[in-house]
Amino acid sequence: MNFSGLIQDFGPLTITGLAQGAIIALFALGYTLVYGVLRLINFAHSEVFLLGSYACLIVWGFFGLDQNSATPSTLSVIGLLLLGLVAAIVISGITALGVELVAYRPLRKRNAPPLAFLITAIGASLFISETVGVMTQRNIKGVPPLIQPRDVFVIGNMHVTNLQILIIVLALMSMFLLDRFINRSRLGRGIRAVAQNPDSAALMGVNKGRVISLVFLLGGLMAGIAAVMYDLKIGVTRFDAGFLLGIEAFTAAVLGGIGNLRGALLGGLLLGLLQNYAASLFGTEWLHAASFVLLVLILLVRPTGLLGESLGRARA
Amino acid sequence: MSEPHIETPAEADAANARPFDRPAPEGTGTGATAPAAPGEDVLLEVDNVTLRFGGVVALNEVSFSLRKGEIFGLIGPNGAGKTTCFNAMTGVYRPTSGGIRFQGQSIVGKKKHEITRGGIARTFQNVRLFPEMTALENVMVGADAHHKTSVIAALFRLPRHHREERTGRDRSYQLLRFVGIEHRAGDVARNLSYGEQRRLEIARALATNPTLLCLDEPAAGFNPAEKADLLALIRKIRDSGVTVLLIEHDMRLVMGVTDRIVVLEFGKKIAEGTPAEVRDNPAVIAAYLGVPTDAA
């Protein structure tokens, strides 16, 4: 184990981990929102993210940009980023709503048992990722270099780049807005009501079907933002990009307390950090194994996750 | 996140007088209301309703009707089908046969939230609040049912959304005052006492602006003093223009407050009439006290 390496690189590992964790956290929100209201693990959420990661690339392709293009001027980068975000958010949102409509709503109408939802979730997930796989001949797709990582400031050996700052700030802003929406608005109140007691919520005039659609939509919007950040950070995407990151995001949601929005943020950031520390300590090849062993240990101590389960806390 | 501050509504006394922004139905002013003549001002009609669960007949050809502005009692021994009848009226169960009409329109097969928005609200035998929301938020969920802003308006916080939020908050606060727990407005519901939770449930139901309020054993677990307070509250609700349907198996409570009563036993209606008529009905006495074997 390489302790001196960990101590020596602690600063750079931390900032990389935070940026990675911010993407995981945004992604994790989709799992947590749906679980909080429906007690359902939406495994197809990884493909909501996947389609978002392609949507922005397609839009950028309209402007003739590919991975070999030169970096455009600052003004057009801002415009392209906004367009890419909008495209990813729209496509991810539509995908999330579509999955709900096709894979879950019919089952809910027939009062299907939870296992049936699990199977359709896996089915929807495989169907979308395989379709993308066939359409792209399973090749990786490069991302145009919209943002060349540049040091904004340096503390010791920690180089903080413009891209890392963008990712972390955008993720925190999105989560802040979502948190406010859930806790302060009328629709958010409806979501919390259904999460805490679906039957009384319906008898108070809350339209449960609309709340469920809204929850899928919100999760999709967040996944769309995460997908653009992922593209810019990693530089490529592929038909199975959603899968492994999806498992990480789901884990982050459970780690923070699934159903708990702030738990997803905490779980995501923590997982990002753990992965980078573990990679330094045991070698990059052990990144996933080591970080997941640590997660199991944390869950042994806090079985309901760090902040406890459920949207606006436990159902009585 | 709890509510940061609670503004006191300007009209401090308005709550006691009229918490509902709707004119009172005609002919139902304050004070005791004499039962209307049959067929007059029918609000809710239960028409020959039968409800079977497999082989069990929970309701057997039950018919009765509620008139506007009365306090109507639905009583019977445990397991008589009172709550089942309630559930059929609020869209939880669909009757096997028979019709239920509210203000002349059939409500059989309608969704729960549609029935609520149509003007029927209810409370539960066992309290079912939103435990992690504040008392005020609980009531606001009920008030939200009548808001018209779209998802878009709410997402972008358009002025109309703000206005509705403000009126919803003011009205919810008035309702808390109306049921007498405004001092708990900012507290999370699960921290309220049992009696306060029951009152909160009534306030939440009233927030949906109902024409008919159904209370399912609201006095369960109450001591005599609390029961007396509750009776006063039920009268106050009726006087504000809301028709009240009360399920109860405590005979004395029902006798004290209702205008008319229907008695169920084993899913069948065995009696109907004023409290005095029902009290002297031999079938009712038999149902409650049991019939001596030699007399049967």
Walk me through the structure.
The complex is a heterodimer of chains A (316) and B (296). With 316 residues, chain A is mainly α. Helix content of chain A is 73%, strand content 4%. In chain A, strands 1-4 form a two-stranded antiparallel sheet. Chain A has a two-stranded antiparallel sheet with strand order 2-3. The radius of gyration of chain A is 20 Å and the shape is globular. Chain A starts with a helix and ends in a 15-residue tail after the last helix. Chain B has 296 residues and is an alpha/beta fold. Chain B folds into 2 domains: 39-119 and 211-296, Rossmann fold; 126-209, Rossmann fold. Helices cover 35% and strands 21% of the residues of chain B. Chain B has a 6-stranded mixed β-sheet, sandwiched between helices. In chain B, a hairpin with a 2-residue loop joins strand 1 and strand 2 (56-67). In chain B, helix 4 (135-144) packs across helix 6 and helix 6 crosses helix 7 (194-207). The termini of chain B are far apart. At the A-B interface, helix 6, helix 7 and helix 8 of A face helix 3, helix 4, helix 5, helix 6 and helix 7 of B.
Question: How would you briefly describe this protein structure?
Answer:
The complex is a heterodimer of chains A (316) and B (296). Chain A is mostly helical and 316 residues long. Chain A has helices at residues 3-8, 10-38, 45-62, 74-109, 114-135, 162-184, 186-196, 198-203, 208-234, 241-256, 261-282, 287-301, and strands at residues 141-142, 151-155, 158-161, 236-237.
Features:
heterodimer; A: 316 residues; mainly alpha; two-stranded antiparallel sheet; 4 strands; disordered C terminus; B: 296 residues; alpha/beta; Rossmann fold; four-stranded antiparallel sheet; 35% helix; globular; ATP hydrolysis activity (chain B); L-isoleucine transmembrane transporter activity (chain B); ABC transporter ATP-binding protein (chain B)
